Every structure is written in structure tokens, then in C-alpha cells.
Amino acid sequence: MSSVIEVPQGSSYVAGALLSTVFLLAGQSHVVSVHRKAAGIKYPQTYAEQRETEASVSALKFNCAQRAHQNTLENLPIVYATTLISALKFPKAAAAACVFWSLGRVLYTRGYVTGDPAQRLKKGGALHSLAILVLLGTSLYTAGSLMLAGI
């Protein structure tokens, strides 16, 4: 048995919100590159060694920039899945939560690259965490509704 999926009105907002993550990743990649150059960390070295970070604030900031970017990549599949599932019933809420997640990650990154990792949570940790909770809740509701409807 086949089902017809209707694209809900407001899906263009979801497309724009998902695109915000592309700009986020591009920005984070740039930040990592700037800090890599400042620290003198050559490719293919992924992170500065501990002795390098102890000797150079630039190396520590590079590690912080690299970690912020890596953590974003680790969370991105969750954001994509929950945004797309939520958008089936709540496209505007899904889009807003996804954009707030991206904005929260920008603030998170800006806090992290100060060289004090604790600043990552003071500068956006709550915003992107709240966005994830909204996406998780709305995607669970959407998935449950679809299952109960037999779709």
C-alpha cells in the first residue's frame, strides 16, 4: 500500500533553516583555518599536541576552534533528522528551532575560541540545547502521530 506525502505549507522556511547550517559550517571551517594558521599547525595534524597548547595560546585556541567545529558535526545528523521529521507537521516551528540551533552554535563557537572552553556554554549553550529539545519533542510527536494514523 502506498501513501501520498503532502509537503506542508511553510516548507520553504525549513529549506532556508537547513541552509543556515551550511553557512554555520562554512564559518566554523574558516575560524578553524584562521586559528590553524595563527598557531602554525600543519596539515594533516588534526589538533595541536598538549605541549603545543601549553606553550602557545594560539595552539589552544586552534584546538578550541577545531573542537567546536567537530562537536557541531557530531550533532548535525540529530538536527537534520529531527528538523525534517518535525517539519512534516510543524514546518515553521521546525525551521525556527533549526535556525536558533545554528545561531546558538555561532555563539557557542565564539565562546569556545576565546581559549576558555567554559565560555562555550555561557555563549550559546542554552540556545542550541533548547532548540534541540524543541526539535526532539516535535519530532517525537510527529512520528507518534504518523504511526497512530497508520502512515
Automatic annotation (TrEMBL):
UniProt key word Transmembrane helix: yes
Main location: membrane
Keyword Hydrolase among UniProt keywords: no
Alphabetical list of Gene3D superfamilies matching this protein: Membrane associated eicosanoid/glutathione metabolism-like domain
Gene Ontology CC entries for this record: endoplasmic reticulum; membrane; nuclear envelope
Lipid bilayer topology: Multi-pass membrane protein
A Pfam family hit: MAPEG
A GO term, aspect molecular function: glutathione peroxidase activity
Residues annotated as transmembrane: 12-32, 130-149
Location relative to the cell: Membrane
Source organism superkingdom: Eukaryota
Keywords: Membrane, Transmembrane, Transmembrane helix
Protein's name in the database: Membrane-associated proteins in eicosanoid and glutathione metabolism
